[in-house]
């Protein structure tokens, strides 16, 4: 009976497929995503397993090539990695933390990524995000869960004029459309990607 | 919109938080040993303080943590916020930190 | 019509940019820089509205936000129409179309003015005293007529075509008002390096400086100093300057709401650009530099068109180069009117008299007026005015020894009044700052602040330009908070000082108080007599007087009237003003169109519309959707020519006889992981979890601590330390929040973590006797035969080539599976299953069919059968309770009195109508005796009711008192037109043995 299944090549469809958006916003490539939860005592072991320091301050990002770990709370990290590394991440934690005092949950399809890139990116987000997005108050490398109008998002500043937004799939079209609407107030510059 | 100091994330706007009712109302360790009256009290009776009020908040659109706060219900000023499990700060009055 | 009252030179209007506009259909000319009000005055038009109650002709009183009369509707068509705009605040643009309000058929000939002749019948509180009977006349006669007569503008008839923007902003110092105090504040804060936002309601920054032609600051003419200061501010990149931006509300913790006009002042040239933007500014410090508002004097017939505030008239001359009239009588208790008189005199307005209430006014301004030959009359009052659509004369009467003497009639077309200035403390008061009465100023001034705010300039009581600038700079410097060493800066000001004080209350007029009307509140038509009447009728609190007379209410919030009302109360009661106190100032400071608050949240952006990964397929199939919270769910899939009943009957038949496919992706899902996961579930759910083996499912019931059902769902144990919990669609966020609450606050000792996976998985239910035949060829890595995969089990495997959690579970009573696959594969897997099901007759079904199928089986839906007062026993779920468990959430409450089955509780039963074709309405009540006189004794209510195609009759579920003991009884359902006989039955209508679950 497995023969039928083996011959299939399933099509992956993202929530934003085919939806026009603001020129400064683009859909982030599919990636592996995990919600990682563990107690303080396990931070060291997890850091060693993943090769990234999880002990950094809350609302900051630890990064290496192909993997970023966003510390969203005292015991919560959002792992964003190359899609291909998904199994390796789970295996590394299984190996390194035999007492299993942690929770790793695959949320690769729960949410989707939007990159907003342009001189007006912070102002555009301020149309719906109540946080102070001044570079001094929200520097590059800061990441936090917050809200954008009527959607919950994770907001990560990856460059002075670039943000990575993580949003649940069913809310992504809303965020996408709202950014497009807000974008009408901000003319697109020639050199904007 | 209130400005609330999350013990983990710092000052954040109220819109990121969910209110959790009066603080320091512990569930009995053995509810079977609790009288009907005491259980009713636990379920339904709250202080409704005028002045300083210890209350629970959750930074639900942030770090997700519950924490406690002392808020003056007359002025809406927060006098202190503190982590779950910590004792209520010894204050009788105060201004917004 | 030519602008006959426009001065040949001066002012800040641009004579090179003539504009054309209409008012009530008549075309007029104006200039760039005009407001509607200044342009109308340039054309000699004073009459702009009819009053609220008496429909009296009313004219432009002021030049700013305090304007009570000149409310107009503006907009080129219904989609751009905004009512109740203040003509003194709206910048003129070419083609502007404005109309007056509250009149019919026209301003000059208004039918409602009959009220003015009947004014004696409309005292304060008249609507509390009249229209009492006959009762039925209220809804049919009185109310419709009153509604037609009263009120201000009308709502537009078309949806607003404009777009509105919103923005959160943050700064160290927010400066409200860009007059001399605000500019000095912003300058100080900017120089200290602070992040500054400065806003001003007017089109140009400068406030009073825009009409200042005499004073000099730091050696510069005031307007040159203004230009230099604005240039200086513009050079700071951390300073945001927002003109045309009203700070309308002061919210807790230093959040201030601003409404910025973006294109409205250009006549909404382009609907693509937002008309306005709502700012929510969080400031570390707020400097309120909102200025002061001149008070009218309360004298008989003080409301005729052509009667204005003195300083406003001066502003029309100096800023807009408009003469407000040809011959003016000036009535004052303050030096400001002399300054106005001199300005008007210079502009060529004849000053017929200056009546000064003060016995012996003296000072530089009085001397200057006398030197200019203006007729000053000390100790003089105005006892009345003449004129219908425009004032034509004032009656001046001397006051001697407290007595008003014989009046002299002086012809004029303009009366200017000045009772002194009231500091604008609205925002400070909104912030819950305490006001303090300053007897020297005869005004409420800011006292102790409740927020991190500072007051500056005239709104803090500063009386001179020098003090205004100095307090402004000081406030800005303090607000920036640089090391506590306040910068002191002296502004060298050359200007003649103005007097303090003024007059509060109603002026003496020597006439029969019963026969005159001296208006206190122009907008609400409240007279001095009305306030005295309220006091005579026993109202004492100023808040009660306000509500009884309506003084200080409505769009202007008493900006010009509050202090005079207080003065009258104080004098009448013989108590000082501080004892009487003041009313609360409400937001908004001036009206803000609703569109600002709606912002982007219109149309498709009103709220997120959540669609499942399979939504597109269903939409292409022509599914009819229903809203479940924010989710869109396919309700049924009609074939051509089918209505809902036919479609649902067909879908039900397919599931009962072959196989159906259903999108259950919206089910809430929570992944519970950690060594203590089972223990956590034990403490939370009524069920026992410890013995549940990995690979098995269990139906879980969740209670609140009060013992009532709050949610239910199937829980799968994926591994020793990993559970896949499902919740109701609507309950997902609530259940997760409840779980987090217990975990974080009651049981922090547990090593377990919760993650929402609702959107990680698309859920495809395949239900019906052929379900296994459809799925089996698509599954790899699991044997789904009945032997290896019994009912209520779960396998991790691949389905259609995709990693899946395959649940064997049924909410239909048939053999069933739920295929969980990563969401972005959901549609592909659905399509594959659908294709594989074709030979078996697979049919897509929606939520309506799902409801019917589960009701046939007596499965409850939390929130439909339960209403927050149902225990597990009540709905037949007592079996789910782990009886051996010492505790779980809600267990203690179940042991309380009144919670047991014998306590005459409402219990779940089935209901069959005697007439099989009749489908009851959900919510209908059941009674024992249909002949009982209402109110009847209601035994219960219908919770679910459907047509069952399978049973070829209607079925219903109900919650009925002691229902389990009444099985077999006949009850009655009284409806509007008939009473229906029903029999109570077991709630399971179909396959009570459950034999079909195995296919």
From TrEMBL, chain A:
Transmembrane residue ranges: none
Coiled coil: none
Protein name: Sarcosine oxidase subunit gamma
Species, as recorded: Acidiphilium iwatense
UniProtKB/TrEMBL annotation, chain B:
Domain of life from the UniProt record: Bacteria
InterPro entries according to UniProt: SoxD, SoxD_sf
Protein name: Sarcosine oxidase subunit delta
Species of provenance: Acidiphilium iwatense
Organism lineage string: Bacteria, Pseudomonadati, Pseudomonadota, Alphaproteobacteria, Acetobacterales
Automatic annotation (TrEMBL), chain C:
Domain of life: Bacteria
Pfam family, one: GCV_T
Keyword field: Oxidoreductase
Span of domain GCVT N-terminal: 614-885
Domain Aminomethyltransferase C-terminal: from-to ranges: 906-991
Alphabetized Gene3D superfamilies for the sequence: 2Fe-2S iron-sulphur cluster binding domain, sarcosine oxidase, alpha subunit, N-terminal domain, BFD-like [2Fe-2S]-binding domain, FAD/NAD(P)-binding domain, Probable tRNA modification gtpase trme, domain 1
Ranges where the SoxA A3 domain occurs: 517-599
Entries under NCBIfam families matching the protein: soxA
Xref: PANTHER family: AMINOMETHYLTRANSFERASE, AMINOMETHYLTRANSFERASE, MITOCHONDRIAL
Family as reported in the entry's similarity comment: Belongs to the GcvT family.
Protein name (record): Sarcosine oxidase subunit alpha family protein
């Amino acid at each position: 009976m497995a023969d039928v299944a083996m011959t299939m090549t399933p099509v992956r469809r993202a929530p934003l497929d085919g939806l026009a958006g603001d020129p400064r916003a683009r859909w982030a490539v599919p990636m592996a995503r995990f919600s990682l939860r563990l107690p303080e005592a396990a931070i060291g072991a997890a850091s060693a397993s993943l090769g990234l320091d999880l002990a950094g301050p809350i609302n900051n990002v630890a990064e290496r090539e192909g993997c970023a770990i966003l510390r969203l709370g005292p015991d919560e990290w959002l792992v964003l990695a190359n899609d291909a590394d998904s199994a390796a991440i789970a295996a590394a934690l299984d190996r390194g933390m035999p007492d299993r005092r942690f929770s790793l949950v695959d949320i690769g399809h729960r949410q989707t990524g939007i990159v907003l890139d342009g001189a007006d990116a912070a102002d555009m987000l301020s149309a719906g995000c109540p946080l102070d997005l001044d570079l001094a108050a929200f520097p590059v490398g800061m990441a936090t869960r917050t809200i954008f109008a009527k959607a919950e998002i994770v907001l990560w500043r990856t460059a002075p004029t670039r943000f990575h937004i993580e949003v649940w799939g069913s809310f992504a079209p809303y965020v996408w459309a709202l950014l497009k609407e807000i974008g009408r107030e901000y003319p697109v510059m020639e050199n904007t990607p | 919109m209130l400005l609330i100091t999350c013990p983990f994330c710092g000052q954040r706007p109220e819109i990121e938080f969910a209110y959790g009712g009066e603080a320091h109302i512990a569930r009995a360790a053995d509810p079977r040993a609790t009288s009907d009256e005491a259980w009713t009290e636990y379920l339904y009776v709250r202080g409704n303080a005028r002045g300083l009020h210890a209350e629970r908040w959750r930074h639900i659109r942030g770090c997700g943590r519950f924490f406690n706060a002392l808020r003056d219900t007359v002025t809406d000023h927060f006098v202190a916020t503190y982590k779950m499990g910590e004792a209520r700060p010894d204050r009788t009055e105060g201004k917004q930190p | 019509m030519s602008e006959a009252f426009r001065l040949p030179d001066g002012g800040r209007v641009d004579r090179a940019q003539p504009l054309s506009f209409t008012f009530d259909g008549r075309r007029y000319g104006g200039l760039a820089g005009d407001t509607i009000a200044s342009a109308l005055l340039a054309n000699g038009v004073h009459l702009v509205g009819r009053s609220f109650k008496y429909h009296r002709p009313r004219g432009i009183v002021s030049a700013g936000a305090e304007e009570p009369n000149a409310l107009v509707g503006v907009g080129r068509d219904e989609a751009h129409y905004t009512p109740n705009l203040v003509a003194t605040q709206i910048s003129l643009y070419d083609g502007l179309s404005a109309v007056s309000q509250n009149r019919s058929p026209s301003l000059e000939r208004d039918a409602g003015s009959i009220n003015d002749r009947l004014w004696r019948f409309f005292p304060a509180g008249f609507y509390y005293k009249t229209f009492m009977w006959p009762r039925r006349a209220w809804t049919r006669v009185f109310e419709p007529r009153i509604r037609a007569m009263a009120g201000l503008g009308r709502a537009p008839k078309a949806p607003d075509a404009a777009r509105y923007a919103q923005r959160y902003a943050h700064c160290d110092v927010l400066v409200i008002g860009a007059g001399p105090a605000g500019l000095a504040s912003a300058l100080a804060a900017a120089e200290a390096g602070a992040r500054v936002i400065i806003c001003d309601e007017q089109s140009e920054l400068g406030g009073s400086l825009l009409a200042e032609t005499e004073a000099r600051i730091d050696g510069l003419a005031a307007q040159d100093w203004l230009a230099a200061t604005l240039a200086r501010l513009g050079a700071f990149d951390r300073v945001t300057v927002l003109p045309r931006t009203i700070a309308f509300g002061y919210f807790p913790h230093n959040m201030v709401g601003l409404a910025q006009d973006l294109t409205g002042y250009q006549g909404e040239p382009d609907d693509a650009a937002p008309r306005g933007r709502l700012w929510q500014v969080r400031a570390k410090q707020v400097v309120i530099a909102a200025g002061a508002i001149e008070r009218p004097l309360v004298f008989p017939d003080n409301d005729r068109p052509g009667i204005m505030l003195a300083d406003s008239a001066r502003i029309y001359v100096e800023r807009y180069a408009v003469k407000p009239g040809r011959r003016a009588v000036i009535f004052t208790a303050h030096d400001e009117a002399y300054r106005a008189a001199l300005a008007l005199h210079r502009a060529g307005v004849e000053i017929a008299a200056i009546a000064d209430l003060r016995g012996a006014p003296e000072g530089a301004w009085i001397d200057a007026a006398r030197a200019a030959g203006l007729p000053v009359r000390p100790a003089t009052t105005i006892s009345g005015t003449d004129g219908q659509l425009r004032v034509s004369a004032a009656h001046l009467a001397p006051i001697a020894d407290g007595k008003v003497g014989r009046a002299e009639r002086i012809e004029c077309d303009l009366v200017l009044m000045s009772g002194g200035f009231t500091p604008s403390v609205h925002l400070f008061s909104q912030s819950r700052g305490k006001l303090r009465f300053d007897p020297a100023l005869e005004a409420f001034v800011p006292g102790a602040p409740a927020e991190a705010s500072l007051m500056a300039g005239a709104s803090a009581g500063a009386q001179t330009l020098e003090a205004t600038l100095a307090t402004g700079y000081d406030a800005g410097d303090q607000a920036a908070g640089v090391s506590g060493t306040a910068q002191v800066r002296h502004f060298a000001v050359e200007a003649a000082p103005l007097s303090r004080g003024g007059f509060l209350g109603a002026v003496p007029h020597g006439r029969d108080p019963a026969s005159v009307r001296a208006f206190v509140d122009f907008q609400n038509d409240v007279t001095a007599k009305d306030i005295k009447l309220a006091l005579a009728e026993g109202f004492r609190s100023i808040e009660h007087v306000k509500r009884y007379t309506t003084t200080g209410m409505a769009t202007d919030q008493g900006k010009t009237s509050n202090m005079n009302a207080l003065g009258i109360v104080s004098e009448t009661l013989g108590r000082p003003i501080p004892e009487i106190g003041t009313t609360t100032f409400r937001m908004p400071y001036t009206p803000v169109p609703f569109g600002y608050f709606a912002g982007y949240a219109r149309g498709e952006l009103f709220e997120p519309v959540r669609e499942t990964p399979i939504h597109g397929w269903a939409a292409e199939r022509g599914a009819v959707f229903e809203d479940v919270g924010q989710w869109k769910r396919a309700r049924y899939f009609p074939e051509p020519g089918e209505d809902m009943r036919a479609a649902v009957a067909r879908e039900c038949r397919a599931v009962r006889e072959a196989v159906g496919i259903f999108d259950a992706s919206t089910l809430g899902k929570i992944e519970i992981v950690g060594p203590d996961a089972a223990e956590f579930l034990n403490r939370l759910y009524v069920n026992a979890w410890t013995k549940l083996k990995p690979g098995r499912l269990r139906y879980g019931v969740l209670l609140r601590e009060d013992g009532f059902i709050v949610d239910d769902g199937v829980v799968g144990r994926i591994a020793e330390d990993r559970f896949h919990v499902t919740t109701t669609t609507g309950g997902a966020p609530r259940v997760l929040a409840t779980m987090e609450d217990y975990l974080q606050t009651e049981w922090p000792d547990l090593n377990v973590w919760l993650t929402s996976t609702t959107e990680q998985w698309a859920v495809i239910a395949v239900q019906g006797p052929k379900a296994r035949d459809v799925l089996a060829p698509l599954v790899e890595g699991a044997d789904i035969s009945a032997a290896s995969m019994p009912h209520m089990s779960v396998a991790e495997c691949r389905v259609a080539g995709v990693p899946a959690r395959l649940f064997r579970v049924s909410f239909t009573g048939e053999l069933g599976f739920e295929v969980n696959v990563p969401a972005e594969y959901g549609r592909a897997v659905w399509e594959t299953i659908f294709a594989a099901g074709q030979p078996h007759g697979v049919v897509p079904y929606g939520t309506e069919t799902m409801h019917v199928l589960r009701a046939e089986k007596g499965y409850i839906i939390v929130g439909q059968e339960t209403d927050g007062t149902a225990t597990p026993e009540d709905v037949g779920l007592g079996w789910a309770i782990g009886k051996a468990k010492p505790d779980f959430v809600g267990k203690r409450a179940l042991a309380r009195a009144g919670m047991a089955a014998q306590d005459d509780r409402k219990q779940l039963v089935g209901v069959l109508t005697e007439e099989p074709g009749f489908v009851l309405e959900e919510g209908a009540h059941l009674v024992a005796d249909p002949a009982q006189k209402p109110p009847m004794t209601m035994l219960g209510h219908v919770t679910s009711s459907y047509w069952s195609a399978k049973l070829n009759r209607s079925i219903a579920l109900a919650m009925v008192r002691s229902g389990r003991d009444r099985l077999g009884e006949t009850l009655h359902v009284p409806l509007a037109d008939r009473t229906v006989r029903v029999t109570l039955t077991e709630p399971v209508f179909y396959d009570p043995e459950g034999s079909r679950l195995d296919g």
